[in-house]
Amino acid sequence: xxxxxxxxxxxxVGVAQSVRHPEAGDELTELxxxxxxxxxxxxxxxxxxxxxxxxxxxxxxxxxxxxxSWRYRDTPGLVAEGETIIDDTECIATSFPRFADLLNTLAGxxxxxxxx
Length: 116
Fold this sequence. Notes:
Layout: H1 34-49, H2 53-57, E1 61-65, H3 75-80, E2 88-92, H4 99-107
Parallel strand pairs: 1-2
């Protein structure tokens, strides 16, 4: 007996992160903005998936947990501009105490467990 998977279930196909650790003396204005780092992480996740930029072009939406350190008027819209072709964007402004709940909402199912 095989389990039937809901065809609407989200699937993780590639993962990546973009991290900067400025050091004393670094010119902060030369470092990339958070939106630029998000785009970099998306490209790296596409490479990790093996599909490259085809993965980004096939995406249905960009959903962004709003940053605490940098304010944009439309973060997901900014991320979806340029080399990506994503029509649906959504910005979710929240704080981190409910981060796991937010991830589960974005994914559409219970996928993150938090130990108390």
